[in-house]
Amino acid sequence: MRYEVHLSSGDGEYMADCPELGLNSRGLSPGNALDRIRDAIRFQIELCPCSTVYEEEIELDVRGL
Prior knowledge:
The chain has one helix spanning 30-45, and strands at 2-10, 13-18, 23-27, 59-63.
């Protein structure tokens, strides 16, 4: 599954936004913000707590920075 993510920075932190799912996250580094948005995407698309979406199934198409 591929998701477009917009990465930006401001006020000493980085923001990652996934407009397709209406999700955003913040982190102290670009990698931290992207890890958090990946976790948010995984949580959003899992059907129930017993279903599992593995990290390698989520591909981020990063735009910005």
